[in-house]
Design a protein that fits this description.
Length: 188
């Protein structure tokens, strides 16, 4: 059974086999990935996966309304939490992103409808044969980044947006030889 090249050790293997690239339409899960992808900037995804449970506990199980109400005192408490990435800008970005999320939800009905609009509501089915072929960003991720930024979101550059798109199945970037490629291709 062949996997994408990056899934060689745990927790990456389980994440690859069970979650990565599966089309996600649940707003809370989409918000979770938005926060985690921002936290990952400059770090390995493996580091974030190992801290994921701590993030869920620290960020109210990624309930955007609760995170949007975090105060300066709560942010200070998070800065002392060894279970998460203790970067003030990333923590403040998560809180700001929750507030921006609420505005997007009010305007579009859901984060799902908003994010998936950047790919026309359907996953892009790529056919990469080698991991070196995968782009770091695309026209869609650049458009998403610009619009998220315009709406007040932080840590949403085009590369972070593309990683988000990969994670939540907006693009199928499993390599064509990967056992997950065809399974993901059939999902909506």
């Amino acid at each position: 059974m062949r996997r994408c090249d990056w899934a060689t050790t745990e927790p990456n293997i389980s994440y690859h086999d069970e979650e990565w690239g599966v089309p996600q339409h649940d707003d809370r899960r989409l918000f979770e990935f938005l926060v985690l992808e921002g936290a990952q900037a400059g770090l390995s995804w493996e580091t974030i996966l190992k801290k994921r449970d701590s993030y869920r506990a620290a960020f109210s199980d990624f309930e955007p309304g609760a995170v949007a109400r975090f105060t300066a005192k709560r942010i200070e408490k998070l800065l002392a939490n060894p279970g998460i990435i203790r970067n003030r800008l990333k923590i403040e970005a998560a809180v700001q992103n929750a507030r921006s999320y609420l505005n997007v939800q009010a305007e579009f009905g859901s984060l799902d409808a908003y994010l998936w609009s950047f790919v026309g509501g359907h996953a892009i089915q790529n056919r990469w044969k080698d991991h070196h072929d995968l782009p770091a960003k695309t026209a869609e991720s650049e458009a998403m980044s610009r619009d998220l930024t315009r709406r007040g979101f932080k840590f949403v550059g085009p590369t972070i947006c593309y990683a988000l798109m990969q994670a939540v199945g907006m693009v199928n970037d499993h390599l064509t030889y990967c056992f997950r490629y065809e399974k993901i291709k059939k999902m909506r």
